Here is the input.
Amino acid sequence: MDSVMKGALLLFAAVQLGGAFGSASAELLERTPGSITIDLEVEVLVSVDAVVAHVSFDAEPELTLPLLDRGDGFFGLTTELAPRNYVVVFDAIGPRGEASDPVTLHQLGIDLVSGSAAADETTEAEGLTESTRRVGWLAVAFAAASLSALAVWVLGGGGEEDEDGARSADEE
Here is the structure.
């Protein structure tokens, strides 16, 4: 793939963050069975002293990576990580500093699922462990049961009863 095509794919995958940040992107430079090498880049629209990327995945400790000034308002870093769909939050440090909304590597343009290992990596690529999925489905089931109970309570009450517990004559 020539450099023009790579640039076009990189632009296509850029995400607009808003606030102090313009676009952000990530490019997969190398993949081995136990690691990925990525180039992470963000555009900063305000004057800052520094920019860091907070990189996290599930229950693993968060990594705080300092980004290098690449000129023209762009900050970036090339780093090696375990092959996971990390969540990234960019943080502009300075007088008008602010943090970006969280984005995943997949949203930034990195496809971690490829080839024959796709089935094994699907859960990691989505950023969810099996236990997280189970808790999510449990929460959905609890919400459905709660809404059902509320509907029965609201709709199943029938007519109003007077103090003796008898129904009024116009309801019968």
